[in-house]
Specification:
Strand order of the largest sheet: 6-7-8-3-9-10
Organism: Actinophytocola xanthii
Bound molecules: adenosine-5'-triphosphate
Family: Belongs to the ABC transporter superfamily.
GO molecular function: ATP binding; ATP hydrolysis activity
Structural class: alpha/beta
CATH architecture of the largest domain: 3-Layer(aba) Sandwich
Keywords: ATP-binding, Nucleotide-binding, Transport
CATH superfamily of the largest domain: P-loop containing nucleotide triphosphate hydrolases
CATH topology of the largest domain: Rossmann fold
Helix content: 25-40%
Strand content: 25-35%
InterPro entries: AAA+_ATPase, ABC_transporter-like_ATP-bd, P-loop_NTPase
CATH class of the largest domain: Alpha Beta
Number of domains: 2
């Protein structure tokens, strides 16, 4: 039962603040670290892994500081985002080397167990260069797991995987979490985090924007203000009707194109069809405006 804890932790690079005053605890089970690119996810994981020192605040693993504490390396495994695996080695050789680096008493037995956990035994004697992306990723997980750590940190483990490989990796993470490990993985895709149905920590521009059950995060995102482009038989008249609605914060009519900013998505969605019908206006299209992930996430910071 090893918890990872950040207390008022910040990390800056020169004048770039990558992580800004973050306090969070990650306990046993599966937790997703969600945020757009550049939000600071990698920096958080590297702080937790003891690869970076916090510029301010503290980062602990099992109550002990992560930085400058070699004991920590014995209790955690890190699967980095960049995929630097030597293709000329077999999975067996790669994982065995990791076991030897950890100076384990029986490296071969540890390598066998780790390769078994990730279900790579049947391909373990082939060169890594012949593997699929998913197999390479599982090999890297095995190398990070070889010393049986209580904490496993994975940076964007699903990147570039096809749906089948993704599913396989999700099952693997679930299984490891059920065994009582503390598993934290980063992602910029809400659906990915949702499917794993763990706790979610959302980080935006270096700050912790939201945290909790994924349903809570989903609700926050759904209830955020939405922008729609609406097509109807009489856009001008519909605009005048909509502007009187409390759930609508702005209406623009540009060259006949009607855009509506709904401050309360649920109320607006329920009212729109009724209002149009009552005014004798036929709705022909409702299109959500293209909103960047960054915009959706930054809404969370403001709530
Ligand atoms: N070594 C570094 N020197 C200077 N700036 C850095 C360094 N590493 C990261 N940064 C900056 O810190 C911020 C956070 O980066 P980080 O890699 O932690 O984000 P991320 O959420 O993991 O993004 P991505 O998913 O794109 O890797 C970014 O603005 C990034 O440019």
């Amino acid at each position: 039962m090893t918890a990872v804890e950040l207390t008022e932790a910040s990390r800056w690079y020169g004048n770039v603040v990558a992580v800004n005053d973050v306090t969070l605890t990650v306990g046993p089970g599966l937790t997703g670290l969600l945020g757009p690119n550049g939000a600071g996810k990698t920096t958080v994981l590297h702080l937790m892994a003891g690869l970076l020192s916090p510029s301010q605040g503290t980062v602990t693993i099992g109550g002990k500081p992560a930085w400058r504490n070699p004991d920590v390396y014995r209790t955690l495994g890190l699967v980095t985002e960049r995929e630097s695996v030597p293709g000329f080695l077999t999975a067996w050789e790669f994982v065995l080397a990791s076991a030897k680096l950890h100076k384990l008493p029986d490296p071969a037995a540890a390598a066998r167990t780790a390769l078994g956990i990730v279900e790579m035994e049947s391909a373990q004697d082939r060169a890594i260069s012949t593997y699929s992306k998913g197999m390479r990723q599982r090999t890297r997980v095995a190398a990070a797991l070889v010393h049986d750590p209580g904490v496993l940190l994975l940076d964007e483990p699903f990147n570039g995987m096809d749906p089948r490989q993704r599913l396989h990796m999700m099952e693997l993470l679930h299984r490891m979490a059920e065994e009582g490990r503390t598993i934290l993985f980063s992602s910029h895709i809400l659906e990915e985090v949702e499917q794993l149905s763990g706790t979610v920590q959302v980080i935006v521009a270096g700050r912790l924007a939201a945290s909790g059950d994924y349903r809570h995060i989903r609700r926050l995102m759904t209830n955020r203000p939405h922008v729609f482009t609406i097509e109807s038989s009489d856009n001008r008249r519909l605009a005048t009707v909509l502007i009187g609605q409390e759930s609508v914060s702005a209406v623009t009519l540009t060259d006949g194109t009607l855009q509506v900013h709904a401050s309360d998505y649920g109320t607006f969605a329920r009212a729109l069809a009724k209002l149009a019908k009552a005014s004798g206006i036929r709705l022909t299209g409702i299109l959500p405006a293209d909103e960047s992930l960054e915009k959706v996430f930054s809404y969370l910071v403001a709530t």
